[in-house]
Amino acid sequence: MLLGSQLRRLRESRGITREAAGYSIRASESKISRMELGRVSFKTRDVEDLLTLYGITDETERNSLLSLAKEANVAGWWHSYSDVLPTWFPTYVGLEGAASLIRSYEVQFVHGLLQTEAYAHAVVERGMKNASVSDIDKRVALRMERQKYLVSENAPDFHVVLDEAALRRPYGDREVMRGQLQHLIEISERPNVRLQVMPFSFGGHAGESGAFTVLTFPESDLSDVVYLEQLTSALYLDKHEDVTQYAKAMQQLQDDSPGPNESRDVLRGLLQLS
C-alpha cells in the first residue's frame, strides 16, 4: 500500500494518466489502479519502468522504492497459516500488523487480540465445525501470534468497544469465561489498550450495523482502512466518505460507553456473577 501510494503521488505530480502509465508497462489502466491501491504484487521491471516514466533518475530514490517493491513481495509470517484461513483474512492480518492505531467494535465475541487461548479455542471450534483438531489448533496458534503485537516494542494503540452481549455470550465452560473476563481486566491496564464496554442499559447505539475495525497507519501517505467481515468474504473500505462514517460511529460508541475505569468495574461485576 505504501509503495502504491508513492507511485500514485509520483504519477499525479507528473500529470500522467493511469492509461499512459499502464501502456508503459504493457498493462491496463485497471492494473495501475490495483498497484496504486496495493492490491497486487509488484514486478521489479514494472516499477523500474514506471520510475523512468515519472522521471525518477536519482539512484538513491530509485533504489529506495525498488527495495520497497522487494519487501512488498515477501510473504508475511502469517502465510504459513494460509491453509486454515479464509482467503480474505491474510490481508487483514498484514494490515493489522502494519497499523499504528486499531479501533474496533465487537458484538458477537471478544476481539481476537484480547482472547485467551482457551476462549479462542472455543470460538474457533464453534466456527470450524468438522475441522480436524490440528487445523483448529493451528488457527488458535495464529490468533495467539497476532496478540504479540499488543506487547511488542512498537505496539499499536488499540481502542476497542465490546458490546455487553460479547461478554455474556458463553464460549467454553464457566472457567473459560471467568479466565477471559479476568484477562480483559488485566490487559485493559496496558497503556496502549483502551477497552470500553457498551452496556445493555444504554439501549440503541452507533454500532447498529455490527462489528467493524478501523485501521490507521503511521505513514501519512496511507488512508485509513475499514475492515468488515462477512460470512463468506470481507470488505476493505478506504474511500474517505466511508472511513469518515465509521470513524464517527466509533467515536460515538466511545463517547456513549463508560470510560476505561468504569468499564473495568463492569468486567469485575460480570466476573463475580460468572
Order of strands side by side in the largest beta sheet? 3-2-1-4-5-6
Pattern of helices and strands: HHHHHHEHHEHHEEEEHH
Helix content: 40-55%
> In this structure, how is the largest beta sheet organized?
6 strands, mixed
Strand content: 5-15%
Structure description:
It is a single chain. The chain has 274 residues and is an alpha/beta fold. The protein has helices spanning 2-13, 18-24, 29-36, 44-53, 59-72, 89-98, 117-127, 133-146, 164-168, 174-187, 240-256, 260-273, and strands at 101-106, 157-163, 193-198, 212-216, 225-229, 234-237. A 6-stranded mixed β-sheet has the order 3-2-1-4-5-6, sandwiched between helices. The longest helix has 17 residues, at 240-256. The mean pLDDT is 93.
Quick recap:
By secondary structure, the protein is an alpha/beta fold. The protein has helices at residues 2-13, 18-24, 29-36, 44-53, 59-72, 89-98, 117-127, 133-146, 164-168, 174-187, 240-256, 260-273, and strands at 101-106, 157-163, 193-198, 212-216, 225-229, 234-237.
